[in-house]
Amino acid sequence: QVQLVESGGGLVQPGDSLRLSCAASGFTLDRYAVGWFRQRSGDWREGVSCIAATDGSIQYGNPVAGRFTMSRDSTKGAVYLQMSDLKPEDTGIYYCAAEDSLFTGRACSRLLRDGMDYWGKGTLVTVSS
To pair with 68 at 20 to 30 A between CA atoms, which of 14, 57, 60, 105? Predict the structure, then answer.
């Protein structure tokens, strides 16, 4: 079955960088859309980034564009989120998610808005001085 396990969260200061990892198993990584989402305290879950199954293109949510970089290593069965210039408003639980978008037909733009079928348990990122 599909399993997603996030790691790499922690406490950092504003302006610092952090890399999150997501170990994926139970499916062929480059045939699924995979994304990062976050949930800040009191807020709805927000789409951070999504890599498409069709062509490997990556889409980012507006609050993180230019600061966060998502990547995929199919040989290791992992996706990453490199976060730079972190701000206190980046604090939250970060989730890795996946969907067989070649089957469901949903593009990253919709997946970032609506979520995906499979979820990890999340990793906490705290940005504070």
Answer: 105
Query: For the residues 99-123, what does the mean pLDDT come to?
Result: 93
Given pLDDT bands bounded at 50, 70 and 90, which one contains residue 13?
very high
Q: Would you state the structure tokens that stand for residue 129, as one six-digit string?
A: 């001085």
pLDDT at res. 95: 98
Across 40-77, where does the E strand assignment appear? 45-51, 58-60, 68-73
Q: How many helical (H) and strand (E) elements, i.e. helices and strands, does the chain have?
A: 2, 11
Is 20:8 a contact under the CB 8 Å cutoff? yes
In angstroms, the Cα distances linking 111 to 9, 18, 85 are 23, 24, 25
pLDDT tens sequence across 61-87:
888 888 999 999 999 999 999 999 999
3-state secondary structure of 31: helix
Helices (H), the chain: 101-104, 108-114
8 A C-beta contact, residue 6 and residue 123: yes
